[in-house]
Each structure stands twice: as C-alpha cells, then as structure tokens.
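Checklist before submission:
- one chain only
- standard amino acids only
- sequence pasted in full

Submission:
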Amino acid sequence: STATPSKLTKYWFMRVGSVITGVLPICRCREPTDLQSPRSSLTPKPQPTDQISKPRANPKFQYARIVKHRLVFATVFAATSALVAAGTTTTLESAGANSRPTTTLPSAPLVTAATASKLTSTVAASTAISKLPGTTVPPVSTFLSEKTTFYQSGTYYIGTCDPQENPALAANPEPCLLGDQTSSRTIVLVGDSNVGNWAPGLDFGLRAAHYRLAAFFFAGCPTPDLVYPYSGGTWPDCNTWHQMVIAQITALHPVAVVSASGPWNLGKVTAAQWTAGYAKLFALATGGNKSVGRVMLGTSPVFAQPVPACILRQSNPQKCALDFSKAGNPYTSQTSRNVVEARAAGATLIPTSSWFCKATVCSPVIGNFLPYTDINHVTIAYSEYLSSVLTSAVLKAAHLS
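Returned file contents:
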C-alpha cells in the first residue's frame, strides 16, 4: 500500500523541524530501509546510472512534539484540492517530466541555469507578481500531493545517502557522488537536509567545471560538529554520524569543504558551543590544511508557514511573502548567526538571500518558479536554475577560480 497523507504530513513536519515547533526535533522519523544500496564514497559510478532515493511504500514513522502543526498540510491540501475541483484557483498544469520520481540521476537539468544578470532581474521583479503564472516550475499540481511535493525537493534528489532514511549510514557515512565523477578533484558538501537545497545545482555546475561533488548529509541532524545533549530519537545517531563522517571526508582528500545548514533553534546548546562546532567541523574536515577551501553557504529564506500550502489558498501570492526586515524575524537571526559561524570557522560565507529576495522581501514565486517545498527547502528545479551562479560563487569562495 502507499503512504497515507497523514503519515506523510508527520514526516514532512519532522523534516521542517525547529522553526515551526520552537524546539530542536527530537523524534525518529525514518522511512523503511528498503533503499537501494548507497553509492560508494570511493568508487564512482557512471553519472547516468547513479542512484537516488525512490518512492517508498508503506512508511512507518515515529514522531513527537508536533501536535500543534501536524495536520496543517493535510488540512490545506484538502481545502485547496476542493478549490481546484470548484474551479476557483489558477488552472493546474500536468506534472509531466518535472515530477521526476526516478531512481537515476538525470543526464540533463530540468531547466536552463540563469546567468547572474538574469537571476538579479528575475528576483527583482518577483515581488510584483500578484498572481500565479499560468505555467509554473514545478507545476502547481505537484503540490496538491504531499508525496509529489517531496519528489520536488533536493532532499529527495540525494535521499539514498541520508541516515534518516537508512540508519546504517549513521555509523558508516557514505556520500552521494555527483558532479564530474571522472575528476580527481573533489569538493565536499556537508550538513543537514539543506544540503539538498544546493546539491542539484552544484551537480550540474560542477560537472561542467570538472569537479566531483561528494554530498554528506543527515536530515534532522545539525551541521556543527558537537555532542548534542539530547537522548532518544535520532540524536544518538546524529552524534555517531558526526564522529564517523570526518574520516570519510578526509579520505577523499577534498580541495574544498562546503557546509550547508537549515534554521535551528539552539535549545540546550549555547551560542558559543554552536559556533565552536562549526570551527571544529571545518578544522577536522580539512585536516587543518589551509590550502583546502572553506566555504559556508548561508541559510536560505525561512518562511513562517509552508509556502506551497500558502500560495494555493491565497489569490495573491505576495500575501505569503517573507519580509525579514521586521524585528525578531527568525531569518534575520539566522543570517546574522551565519556571519559569526563563518568567522569562527575561518570559512568564506556565501550569503544566499539575494538569490531569492529583493532586498529584505522574499517572494514565494520567482519568475515562473515555485522555489520552495515547505518553509525553507528549495525545489530541485530552482536549485538547477541557480546552478551557474551557485557554482561560480562556491569556486570563487574556495579560491578555485
């Protein structure tokens, strides 16, 4: 049998985690372990046949501390499905090729990557969009199902390598190998589920630049390398993964290490401990070698509610926009924290808000793109749209161009 909407709702809210609930996620929210074998970190496979996670049947989830919000997706999707049936929303397009629930990595991107000038102009115009375009990427219809919504996310793109889905990988981390797998020059991308925001774009960008990309990530496990003072759920596995992943990274002799992180409330972890965890991560992952580039990708925008659900129930998508100029906005604190983290780690920070936002306003629609799958995770298509700008920024920050 297939997964029910209620189970998928529970899964997605544990993916989203801390910003909505106000606490660090503490539950174990895994899918069954009937995954394809993770790709070897040392034995590249031909790009067209590299495997990523596939749709799983009958997932079993254990979850906690999400009662307040766990029915939001189910309620909104039910309501918006009814609106579509009544003909009161924008005409929906067929999911077509953009759905891509596939077991192989694509040989070509879904979309053409934007130039820097094109991205700037498209983002600048985005805050004036008052109605959903007739055709969007991904199609609006893909967000009427929680399962197909997940298929649009970068977390799905590299899901095979996630210990959240394959518990054995906590003690034996292996990366998803992307980019140019024939290259002897490896760039490591490491972090939490936000690694998926950038992996699709870097996959194609680094193929063209002739670098291999090794993506290590653990959804629901914070990026800083420290012992998290929590018991139960996935926290023991998170701590184990941090202990074990360093050896796997250094074995690849990377020319650069790039970190990615989603929004986190610190909970019992102090700000000083959190920052020190970033310094430790980069020091160990680079082996203390100053010739290895250190790069931190800034956190992508953090919305107050799942973006697809909001735009489907609003006639004007700008009612779902994020304005992080307002005092106390979580994204403001995240971007400020990024600066401190990068400085402590000796890493070059790449702020990412300008790829999504005009000044401090982030539209939920950019051009004809729907960039978000929830409050913070980016669609595969938009990550690929950023490919050229993203790859250039990473190579420049790592002193590789």
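Reviewer check: Strands lie at 176-179, 186-191, 212-217, 256-260, 293-297, 322-323, 348-350, 357-358, 361-362.
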